[in-house]
Amino acid sequence: MSIDTFTSRQFNQDPSSVKRAAKKGPVKITERGVVAYMMMSIEEYLEISGKTSTICDLLSAPNTVDIELSVPKFKTTGHSE
Question: Global pTM?
């Protein structure tokens, strides 16, 4: 796996290209020639961190406002006495 490197100036001037690169693998972002940040996709982060998303994480994610969630009602059975 290759790791792309961008300067902080490149990141500020064209963040979309850095995001595209991060979809392929980790990206180094340098400041004055020194790696200051790493950027990666959330999928890659979750994979290496061993964490999984919760329903709350997924529902609070950006661009989920227009998603309609239909949850079926839980049916209970009556108690027999």
Answer: 0.58
